[in-house]
Amino acid sequence: MIENERVRERSGMYKALTIAGSDSGGGAGIQADLKTFAALKVYGTCAITAVTAQNTVGVEGIFELPAEFVGRQIDAVLKDIGADAAKTGMLSSVAIIEVVAAKVQEYGVKKLVVDPVMVAKSGDYLLAKEARRVLKEKLLPLALVITPNLDEAGTLTGRNIDSEEGMVEAAKALHDLGVPYVLVKGGHLSGAATDILYDGREIRRFTAPRLDNRHTHGTGCTLSAAITAFLARGLAVAEAVAAAKEYIQLAIGRALGVGRGCGPVHHLASYYSWGE
Ligand SMILES: Nc1ncnc2c1ncn2[C@@H]1O[C@H](COP(=O)(O)OP(=O)(O)O)[C@@H](O)[C@H]1O
Ligand SMILES: Cc1ncc(COP(=O)(O)OP(=O)(O)O)c(N)n1
Fold first, then answer.
1. Which ligand 2 atom is nearest residue 219's CA?
2. In the list 89, 139, 186, 240, which could disulfide-bond 20, CB 3.0-4.6 Å?
3. Mean pLDDT of 155-173
């Protein structure tokens, strides 16, 4: 990655870039990613793709940035600061996906986590329907890890996934597209919260007790940001997923109860309890 070794020698910091949308409610998107990077002691930078007017109840509006300007943000960050790892979240449109894919290739970003965000928990669309095919064809093959939830894995594979066996089948089908590591998240199944990682050889299960908590807004963004941070710190993929799973469990367990709807998790739970 660009000048990475030289930059680390100078600053001693691990760095991660998020390319995602802004959530005015602070629970998902860029805000979740930067809080997560900071909590995990990684210097975070960002390229904003779209600004949402959003809270814990839903998405009230989306203002998409020009694709060319998304590219300029990525240029500004990577030619100066660099990134040990990067992630994508809400990409919004075909044009933005194309710019992001081009920049990932131009700068040789190797540790790329793609969270194929399509629809918010509230049901609002965060990716144009016509962009799904482009995401699959142009960005997924550049990823080291992808982190679809059940619906996203279903859309990308044309299946209806409602069981762990279905998650395994989807993970294998997505690996066949050329993705080295596929993590299918099981947050929307009943029972334990089990995510499945497939690397082309073995299936690994990451399981945690399901927390009875409606405040799970931004869990997907937060998990993928934590994986990115641990990759930036040099962990191997399976270790990064295991560490990220512990992090999200704590963050959900200490969720803040902010707002009238589905509130954010506590990204800084390991540092302080709410109200202190
Ligand atoms: N109620 C819960 N208790 C414990 N873990 C959960 C819960 N809901 C989601 N998770 C975990 O949070 C992460 C995000 O999963 P998921 O909710 O499926 O993603 P998304 O937010 O993209 O829909 C996964 O590790 C999942 O297992
Ligand atoms: C700006 C923005 N990006 C992504 C999401 C979706 O986040 P996710 O972690 O999947 O959480 P939920 O929407 O499912 O709570 C978002 N809402 N906003």
1. 9
2. 89
3. 97
